[in-house]
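[Automated response] Your request has been received and processed.

Submitted sequence:
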Amino acid sequence: CTHNHNAPSVLGYNDFSASSEYESLLRDKTAACIDMAFSQMETGSMEYGIIPGNWNINRRRKTADGIKLAPNPDGPTDKNLYVLKFLSSNGSLRGLLVNYACHPVHYPDTLCLTSEYPGFLCKYLEDTFSGCLPVFIQGAGANARPLETVENNHFEHRAFKHIEIMAHSMKNAILENIDLKLFSPVKPQFASTAFCIEIPTGAEGRNYFKKSSFDENLSAHLRRNAKYVYENYDALKNSFTLHCGLIQLSDNLIIVHMGGEPICEVKFNIQKILAGYDVIFAGYTDSCSYIVTDEIIDEGGYEVSCFLEYMHTGRIKKGIDKIISEGYKKSLDQLKS
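Generated structure:
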């Protein structure tokens, strides 16, 4: 899982609360996983399939007072589960890559540590398919929340049983479709490109951050962020770096990866550039910002106004659609060449 609201803080998002011991643990565990993977390589095959589902809901509702964080059943979301199957030479299932776009935000307990629905889903898949290693990758779900958290016209914190319900339902959907014609063989044709683009931001002014650093209505985390921006305002740039790239798996299957927290409309725009390709979208590869569209910037709302969370000097400026599109068009041309 690449995004979680019930896990320890990490460097790059909340440096004030990050732990050097935890950072070391993450690096060691990640390196151990890579070593284990290379030590267990074998000949096999790969299949790709899309499983339809309905486990998320748009969280941006238009009201007379602007965009509110509330259920919007008419808003856009990416409903599908995107699944890669990895099979051994004798046809046994050895791995599953599962991609879905939805915030893991049931909030079963503010003080608990949990891998939320992605971790529960992987555990259920591991128990169901003996000898199979499942991996979950978060999609473009920055503006989507679990359907299980909806209570009338607002969102509610849910207990672990609701996380289990969502994860069980997703596991069952995979189980019911794993051997059906939804999946087709992937003939490997590997290539990749990576690039960085600068996303311009506005400047709220130094006094805004000075006032915010004393605003008791803000969390301690945001007040610390505001103090940092205030004290370092002249040294900060009015932009941030967005890391992006393409990973080609076959002549018609591509993984799009992007830093930050991308909303689903960002994926949909990139899919237009990649017309003719099947796309797995991997978001949240770092914690630089919410990644929005020009239309969302006009609408406003949390995803636009939360620049303090990422210690930016202001909101993202319009023109982001063109910047992202040009970056991926150039990257696709490089991939083809």
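Summary generated for your ticket: The chain is about 30% helix and 30% strand. The longest strand covers residues 239-250.
If you did not submit this request, please reply to this message.
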